[in-house]
Every structure is written in C-alpha cells, then in structure tokens.
C-alpha cells in the first residue's frame, strides 16, 4: 500500500468531514469509520498510523451515547480525542485541532508521511478492488454522470474484462450524451458495455403523465426494471459497482456510523438479486472524484460536467412529456451549452439549462400567425444547491442564444430568462 492512513472514528461529531479534509490538506489520507468498529476491523485497514476519536460535544450518535471498544486502546496506535470532555486517552482537545497540533500528531506522534495523492490513491484502490473481487464478476450501471464514469474507469483499470457496464438510454439524456458514453467507454477504454435503447419504453410509460412526482417515480422505477432485466441475462455476477461518494455518507450526530457501515443493495432491486457492493470512491469528496477521473484518463468534459438530475430532461419538459417538446428542450439545451462554452461561462456558472413548459403562446413567423412553445433559460450559482442565485448573464450572450434558439429549434417562438433565486424557486422546475 502506498498511503498512510489516519482513521477518524465518528463518535457523533458534526465535523467529521471537516476534520478529514483538514488532514488530507496536510497531505495525509484519512477516512471516517463508525464508532463501533472492532479492533480486528481497524487492524485490517491498510497502513493505519493513528486514530482520532471525533466526539463532538457529547459523544452521541442518533441520540444514543456511544463509546469505542476497549480493545481499540490496546492496539497501541497513537490516539487523540476531539471535543470530548472526559477522554480516556492521553490528549484531549475541545475544538478541532489547529494546523500545528494536527501536524504534530500526524507527523511526530503517528510518524505518518504526506503521501496522499491521486496516483497513490488509485494504486491503493486498485489493489483493494482486486483483493475484494478476486476472480468474480462485477456489474455497473453507467449513467455517464461523473461518479459512475469514474467508478467505471477505476474498475476497468482494476479488473478489466470482469466488469460489465450497462448504459440505459431512457430517452431523457442530453444531446449526444449516450453516444459519448458509448464512444468513450467502448472505443477508448475498451469496456465491456451493454447499451440498452429503452427510449420507446420510457416515453411510452410516461405518456400522458403530468404530475412531477409521478414522472420521477416512473423514470426511477423503470430504470431499476430495465437494469434488473439486463442483470438477469448475465450469469455469475456477484458484485455491483457503485459511485457512492463522501457526501452521500451523511454527517453524524445523525447517521454516519450507520451509513459508513451499511452494505445495502442498490435501491429498489429485488431481494433475490442481492449483490455485494464495490464502492471505490466512497471516501472521496466531489472535487477529489473529478481529480481521480482526470488521473484515470477520462475526458475533461465528462469529469467536469455540470450536475444533471437522474430523471434528466424529463423534469425539464414540463407536464406530460411530448416528443416535440422533448426535442425542443434537448436542442435548446445544446445551443445554450455551446454558447456558454464560447463565452467562457461554462467554467463560471454552476448549473445552466433550458426548460419547455407545456403551453403555447401566439407569435409571428414569415408573416403568419403561429401558436408555439417557449424555451426558458435558467442559469444559477450555488455552493450546496440548498440556495441559489441567478447568474447575471451578459445581454449580448442572451441575445445570441435567443436568436439561435428561435432560428434553429422547431416549434418555438419565444425565449425567456428565469430571474428567480432559490428560495422561493427550486433550481429545477419539477
Ligand atoms: P432543486 O430543484 O431541488 O435541485 O433545487 C437541487 C439540485 O439537485 C439536482 N436534482 C437532482 N439530482 N436526481 C439528481 O441526481 C434528481 O432527481 C434531482 N432533482 C434535482 C438539480 O439539478 C440541482 O442541481
């Protein structure tokens, strides 16, 4: 193993990830583990140099007082306790340790080396994946999103042909998105990729369904069914790759302990299709996942793409989805993305997309009255997607985009810019 490891034990602090981040910033790899880890489990982690008991104000997890097993103290690992009034080990801190204190603990007491970097991380993960997978086969749902793409690239590097990727095209992808997934993974990375064209199936199920929640349920449920059908066609698959990342593991005081430990099945797959999970990114923050993807040779566009909701354009083609409006939202989105990239806004704006409502308005084209759809442009900035502000896009850029949409997108005679912050508006419309 290439990297030294500092283990943070979650004893109910709400700042586990802040602490993990602070340690990584000093060049040492750190992981958060649940308070009820056994001495055996802790010993099995590679290159553990020290342990931090992160107790928060009161050492409570989900309202229960928690303590670590006495056996852990007997491993003889350097330990400090953070935020805990009655520490059983030598040193006690009442707040997050400052940089100097952390440095002293990491480098002097633990003798850790600053050897955390993406290259070492990938090498270590590849070894761990090979150990876990052995000769067995792995299945992965490859949406083309950042997380699933990076997991796929990592698994291809680690176990190559033992991996089967399934890409489901639900017809709600952006322009050329499915094509690009196939091109990158089949042609460049030589992945064993099954491409499922489920466009008609999804659009059929969604026909006439206007309620946003119902639409989401249908898209999510149908996705599981298509994936399940593909999984059943394959033989002898025991493992499922998943793009779980750090932020998916909820901060504690609440649920970290449970989440870090759980080996749940992919949401919604039937009981008899139980897989063991491979989750090589579950210790990474989003920016680290992107760095990992770059190091693994994925294209910049794939790794730095803006967030895109699971139900895809389905929640941007408002109300009951129709093919003409779906096409309009897809074409307008492609124009918006192209023009934002030309203006350098793709690197500045957090998320930007188009929406097509399910009503028409009156207009004039070639001296004749038309009754057509409108495209709404939304461009927002946010840190955590909980609140968002509207990007003040340059007027000329907006004019250029508007002119192109009106000239190039069929069935559209009007373009609007959404000025609403979140709250009260959400980022997406549905
Ligand atoms: P809202 O609309 O709630 O969106 O302000 C916040 C962020 O979450 C994204 N989003 C989703 N992402 N599956 C996803 O993976 C979804 O169903 C989903 N719905 C919203 C949205 O694009 C925005 O970035």
The fraction of residues in strands falls at 15-25%
**Bound small molecules, deduplicated:** xanthosine-5'-monophosphate
Query: Pairing-aware structural class of the strands and helices?
Result: alpha/beta
Q: Note the gap between the termini.
A: 46 Å
Give the rounded overall mean pLDDT. Answer: 91
Trace the largest sheet across and list its strands.
2-1-3-6-7
Largest sheet: 5 strands, parallel
- Number of strand segments: 17
How big is the Rg?
25 Å
**So how many helices?**
14
Question: What fraction, in percent, of the residue positions are helical?
Answer: 25-40%
Query: Regions with pLDDT < 50 over 5+ consecutive residues?
Result: 252-265
Shape: globular
Walkthrough of the structure:
By secondary structure, the chain is α/β, with parallel strands linked by helices. Helix content is 37%, strand content 20%. It contains 14 helices and 17 strands. The protein has helices at residues 16-25, 39-44, 70-73, 99-109, 118-133, 146-159, 177-188, 199-206, 212-233, 256-261, 286-295, 300-303, 323-342, 395-408; strands spanning 5-10, 29-34, 48-54, 60-61, 64-65, 79-82, 91-93, 137-141, 163-169, 192-197, 237-241, 276-278, 351-355, 361-365, 368-381, 389-390, 412-417. Helix 5 (118-133) crosses helix 11 (286-295) and helix 6 (146-159) packs across helix 11. The chain is globular, with a radius of gyration of 25 Å. Residues 307, 309-311, 351, 385, 422, 426-428 line the site of xanthosine-5'-monophosphate (XMP).
